[in-house]
């Protein structure tokens, strides 16, 4: 097989397209099939830097890991990074090419990107046995179909069969499957081979009559019913609007090794980006991570993280309006640990000069670190390697702000003053030895009898999670039928479903 393909579409955003795509990639590679993921256009504030210095969505980097291949800009040629509800930075082949309003993008620019998107897909299909493509949102966004470069637009151009994923845990999945199909043009419907039910709880035999009725209404089969899987911990894609009140990420590995647990509070700043940085903390037994937006929620935190953001100046204003800025200043004065990552690091500094991102000019930071930041037009995209706390560290950088560090102890190209740390490096906590050393310092400063587990491997845990996704596909989907779709395309003679048909 060479150049086979499949598009995993969804009835809605967050239906499970990313994890299903990753699961199919992991299942295929375990069968000895050389496979790559692909998403023509992604909208996300959670991104990653490839080894060649290209910025792509973290979901595609995760899918590449599932496929056991190196991530590449070919796998996500267009990345949109929202800066507000109405505008985004456009990243093409891993490099930013400018800011654009949603109207301007969908009104013309998007159409010019169709050819480079298709060229990337065809290059992957010429290199790999199979390419598993992920759609975006829903293929039935009829207002956007004319300029579509991620759903049925590429499916029709590349003659890809389509499987539609629906989240049954939300309710209404049968209406979603039928409505999605019925809203498509006949040429698009001819590529929709069937459906995958995601996040099912309970006795599947109770669902089967509905699946039979859906087949009767649409002429399309269901390729599997995937059970609800707890604790998957897979990278999330959408960072524009994150409502995280009450969200707690706890270690699912084991009880704490020491006598105490360690509590981490993450400030849920506006346009939060790469909040996946804290996932490595939850790999440690006895670490609890909460996303917070009120100063009183910092009271019992042993560590507060100010994460990355697409809007540093906006995040600073938010911290001040919420009273979190004053709470962070008090923490620092009391010697209680604070970690700023990327935009969070910039916010902890003395001053920001920004004529690029917010165009706000000179803005005072929180003054917790001796750092001044100037935003430049050029974006730093890098994969640095270094040492901190006596341990080797790897990370990645994605930022327009250039930091002028004027004091403190060196810390991953940033600095440390007392119990306040700041760095532009994302992903540093995934380095196991460094993470344990850092948590020991935090525990000592917080007065906790917390001991990091000596053998926790974040990389190994991530591999286990990806294998779980592969197992879900292998055990609960009709893999023979999926493989036929990938090799042969959609079946001939699939019926047209007119809107409102029964």
Automatic annotation (TrEMBL):
Question: One Pfam match, by short name?
Answer: GATase_3
Which example biological process does GO assign this protein? cobalamin biosynthetic process
Q: What does this protein do?
A: Catalyzes amidations at positions B, D, E, and G on adenosylcobyrinic A,C-diamide. NH(2) groups are provided by glutamine, and one molecule of ATP is hydrogenolyzed for each amidation.
- Ranges for domain CobB/CobQ-like glutamine amidotransferase come to 263-432
What are the record keywords, sorted? Answer: Cobalamin biosynthesis, Glutamine amidotransferase
Q: Name one GO molecular function term.
A: catalytic activity
Q: Does the keyword Transmembrane apply?
A: no
Domain (CobQ/CobB/MinD/ParA nucleotide binding) spans: 7-238
Read off the Gene3D superfamilies from this record. 3.40.50.880, P-loop containing nucleotide triphosphate hydrolases
Task: Name the NCBIfam families on file.
Answer: cobQ (TIGR00313), PRK00784.1 (NF001989)
Q: Which organism is it from?
A: Streptomyces vietnamensis
The question of whether Acetylation is a record keyword is answered with: no
Q: Which InterPro entries match?
A: Class_I_gatase-like (IPR029062), CobQ/CobB/MinD/ParA_Nub-bd_dom (IPR002586), CobQ_GATase1 (IPR033949), CobQ_N (IPR047045), CobQ_synth (IPR004459), GATase_3 (IPR011698), P-loop_NTPase (IPR027417)
- Name the family the entry cites: Belongs to the CobB/CobQ family. CobQ subfamily.
Which pathway does the database say it acts in? Cofactor biosynthesis; adenosylcobalamin biosynthesis
- Name of this protein: Cobyric acid synthase
The UniProt entry annotates the active site at 342, 426
The family database entries (HAMAP family) matched by this protein are listed as: CobQ
